[in-house]
């Protein structure tokens, strides 16, 4: 995938984050979200600059960053121009129990994290991580 122009990136919208409210510490789980590709370019996890989903973990009370970069989830299938699709994102819970904010966004690897452009490029959800 080639580098997306910033004006095109601004027209991509994330919505409808669906994640568990409670997870076990250090557990892998999946969430779902919708991506609305309102541009003339297809989006996909294709070289040289793949588009992926990723996330950050923040302390829900202090907003302190707890995990800066989560695992990358490839966009499969490719999202064609002017279409919408629901995707799953792979997430690993924090290693310490507590109340966290999960912030999900798109990443064009080696280029940008989309959440830095506008609020419709990040989805937030509160998750409680508990010990087994």
What can you tell me about this protein's structure?
There is one protein chain. With 132 residues, this protein is mainly β. The protein is built from one helix and ten strands, in the order αββββββββββ. β8 and β9 form a beta hairpin. The N and C termini lie far apart (41 Å). The relative contact order is 0.31.
Please tag this protein with its features.
132 residues; mainly beta; seven-stranded mixed beta sheet; three-stranded antiparallel beta sheet; 1 helix; 3% helix
Mean pLDDT: 96
End-to-end Cα distance? 41 Å
What is the tally of beta strands? Answer: 10
Main structural class: mainly beta
Topology:
Blueprint: H1 6-9, E1 12-18, E2 22-24, E3 28-37, E4 51-59, E5 65-67, E6 73-74, E7 83-92, E8 98-108, E9 112-113, E10 122-130
Parallel strand pairs: 2-10
Antiparallel strand pairs: 1-3, 3-7, 4-5, 4-6, 4-8, 8-9, 8-10
